[in-house]
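Researcher: I need the complex structure. Ligand is pyridoxal-5'-phosphate. Inputs:
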Amino acid sequence: MTAYSGASATGSSAPPTRARAVVDLAAVRANVRALRDRAPRSELMAVVKSDGYGHGAVPCACAAREAGASWLATATPQEALALRAAGDTGRMLCWLWTPGGPWGEAIAADIDVSVSGMWALREAVEAVRTGGRPARVQLKIDTGLGRNGCAPDDWLELVGAARAAEAEGVLAVTGVWSHFACADEPGHPSIAAQLAVFRDAVAAAERAGLAPEVRHMANSPATLTLPESHFDLVRPGIAVYGVSPSPEIGQPADFGLRPAMTLAADIAQVKRVPAGHGVSYGHHYVTPGETTLALVPVGYADGIPRHASGSGPVLVGGKWRTVAGRVAMDQFVVDLGGDTAEVGDEAVLFGPGDRGEPTAEDWARAAGTIAYEIVTRIGQRVPRVYVNGPGHSD
Ligand SMILES: *Cc1c(COP(=O)(O)O)cnc(C)c1O
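Model: Output:
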């Protein structure tokens, strides 16, 4: 898999941009290796849904493959088909189906399709009967998340129907899998309960004659902290990008992980204003004294949470500043106090933290959300710039 989408140049020939999300592909590779070390007896399925959590699905998928991810996963079939179109030929799973979905295309592309109920199994079987190759189907059991997945009461019916279709040669059941509700809260009683339901579901599938290649449950927090959940493969997403699933799990560095994305923008204006000057819509910030304001040219259209108005942290000139007043669609302001800056100086919103910049976790706290949302929501107007891509010696 060699195709890369989006910006890849970082040399002096690249035109300057207002803002950029620099994605360190060496960090992605190192994170995948660190996760494989955590689950040494399991394969690794790198989750690259939602454009690789905002980092760019194709470059991150390539990096994950290079570091030994034998599987990729996406939510939608369209995301999986896009990876095939970019040249990926390895094992791949997608799970978020609705009636009338592209079953035939996914099956033809040798993508494992997840089935959580009878309607989905019927659509997969129908796609094969109308001229497809046998489908690779993974059955998903809801072990307690209460979201996608077959209810335990319906499991035997689904398993029986899948086994019958398998016996006919229409499909192969390649996996049985599930997803945790609270793996990011170590010790939560639902974790052991879900594991018990999963083991029963796997046993029931085997009694019905199924012999899945892979059984899997572990998302990032479970990959990091719960070896008994690793089964045949682990399925981390956020940790691939070097972000911790939750403060309770720990800091990325505790696990040898490094945040891959650095979000920065070039200051677009610097000006002196008197005391008592209102700043941004609604004048929710009023300068406490004569001061210098700097304009940071990214806003909620770029994924900067408006909920971080008055609280989001930004590194300017080596110091942490705070968003002054409201985050607007395209811009926000920071108060530099007694300091100044030049137009064109870099404002770093978040990164790995080792240059003193805030992290995605800091923004999550400021906006009352999780770091997953901070990185994933960065908008398409912000170019992704890839560094340490293929050929870089790790
Ligand atoms: C998003 C997702 C994952 C990855 O979760 P992380 O917490 O990012 O590791 C795994 N499995 C399913 C079903 C998901 O939706």
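Model: Summary of the prediction. Residues 2-12 have pLDDT under 50 and may be disordered.
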